[in-house]
Amino acid sequence: MSRYGQTLEPWRWIGLPALGCLAATVALAAPFRVFGFGFPEPVFALAPAFAWAVIRPSLLGPVTLFVLGLFCDLFWGGPLGLWALSLIATYGLALGGRSLMAGQGGAVMAAWFLAACVLAFGVAYILAIILAHEQANLIAVAWQFLWTAALYPIVHWLTDRYEDADVRFR
Amino acid sequence: MAFRDSPFSQLKAPLTWTAAAVAVVVGFAALALVLTDRRGAGPYGAARSEFDEVVEPVASVLSAPAHWVSSFGDWTSGYLFAVHENRELKKQVMDLQRWRDAAIALKNLNLRYESLLKLRTEPPIPMVTARVVSDARGPFSEARLADAGAADGVKVGNPAMSEDGVVGRVVGVTAHASRILLLTDVQSRTPVLIDRTNARAILTGDGGPNPKLEFVRGFDPVKDGDMVLTSGDGGLYPRGLPVGVAARDIRGVWRVKLYSDRAAIDFVRILVFDDFSQTVSQADLAASASALPPLTKPEQDQLAAARTAALKPPAPPPSVTASTVRAATAAPPPAAPPAVGPTVRLESGSAPARPRPPKAKPKIPKGAFRPDEVLAQPLPADPPGGGA
């Protein structure tokens, strides 16, 4: 906290959620299967990609998302840049609709997050077609989409926790 | 000089527009990375190698609890379903005993044929066992990181198998880790064959659990339940590794239920398989070709004559005239051959073949062991331990 009032350093509202996403991604990639069922694989980084744009526009946000996306691509062994581009597209959508989202309730915000997820997976789907000349299995895409959309409580918690945490954010 | 004292301290820029500009710049950077990335097709890349080398020990530690829980789950399910599994295994052992006898007989016969024909058989392939430390299961990337690398002899392109069947192939290697691209990955293409018909196809991953069979050749080459093996075409995989069973989906597309899906893939065997394309050096080939001595004049003449003879069309059959037909019809008919055996078609310039009497079939006592009969029977539905 600075001497001018309640301020929030970037490492708290950007750095810690980013580290949390990395940890969750690595933890859920464990080769675990019991009775034929393994861990789901949601794209955790989509939650901060949406929430950071809603909380406050920042120069660090897109750069951190780029790094997070590259980490996902390298860690999952996918095409380099695929999730980086998808996350930044999500950030762009949330940034563009930020004024429309101001003061809205939970249901509207959830709908916006759902739209952001659709955009992110749409970008990834099209890029996969371009790169592999093959359409990804829609059931598998829908399965990962559902698990990612289920991360909305994390988005809600992030925005609720940090939106008014700094006087400069108002 | 502090920033607040500099002339830039008065610079004001709208935060939203600045953030949007940064997003556009990094977006273009990401797009450039996507368009220039050649995962699995080109060199693995220093960034990926370094990343895998760093991540492997971390993921290995983090995956240890998952391995323990998986082992405990396997132990629990084995304990709970022991009686049922025992009954199933007894049935399968009885069935497999016939197959074992057939396999032994055919193996002996095969060895005799190989020695008679002086066939050059494939040498045994050494294997490296590795533990899987991370597992990507998304629709856009299906890959696993294993804890064996170049220090263990693993090379890019080596096939990886579980205890049930082919898992994928190695697309990246560091000193102590290797990245395995699964058969189900959207960029995976694997040449396979249908065991029953020997028809060739390409196994194409789409991010789902059952990859597609594409470019299937032949008339009605696939049926439900056909066994799919690697064909060895292109030299990526050795021929004959078990892949899965063919099945048609609701849209009528042929897919393969992978054998490797039957159990958790916590360990893989990486086949240190050196294909000709991996062992041969193109530079050495070019050097040896240029080192050949030039042909002498007689050798060149001989080569030209052989080439001319090869290109020359074959001599036409003798022309049939009216006199030859009359002579043939006037001659007494030849003695009727014994009515046995098939009609033999004569080739021009060869001696007329005499029809062969049919071979007397050896009498086989009832109940004797017949490998061909055993092999004609369908395989048992599932191997032991299936259904995971």
Describe the structure.
The complex is a heterodimer of chains A (170) and B (388). Chain A has a single domain, classed as Arp2/3 complex 21 kDa subunit ARPC3, CATH 1.10.1760. In chain A, a hairpin with a 2-residue loop joins strand 1 and strand 2. In chain A, helix 2 runs parallel beside helix 8 and helix 4 runs antiparallel to helix 6. Helices cover 68% and strands 2% of the residues of chain A. By secondary structure, chain B is α+β, with helices and mostly antiparallel strands. Chain B has a domain of 186 residues: Rod shape-determining protein MreC, domain 1 (Thrombin, subunit H), CATH 2.40.10.340. Chain B is extended, with a radius of gyration of 32 Å. The N and C termini of chain B lie far apart (67 Å). The chains are: A mainly alpha (170), B alpha+beta (388). Chains A and B meet through strand 1, helix 3, helix 4, helix 6 and helix 7 of A and helix 1, helix 2, strand 1 and strand 2 of B.
